[in-house]
Amino acid sequence: xxxxxxxxxxxxxxxxxxxxxxxxxxxxxxxxxxxxxxxxxxxxxxxxxxxxxxxxxxxxxxxxxxxxxxxxxxx
Length: 75
Hints:
mainly alpha; about 75% helix; 4 helices
């Protein structure tokens, strides 16, 4: 089972992604959107192995992607 981050931890991880990866969060969200159609854990593994991301950053990106996708469906 994957670890659940608090909202504060999630926001802190997102804030550090540009500094740690050299890419903005929006770029990573596009990468996930354009990537393979996988479940959460598979996307996590894909980002970690294909893009050499740390576990926390990969998880924060996928979680943010899922949050934004769900928000779009509500509108």
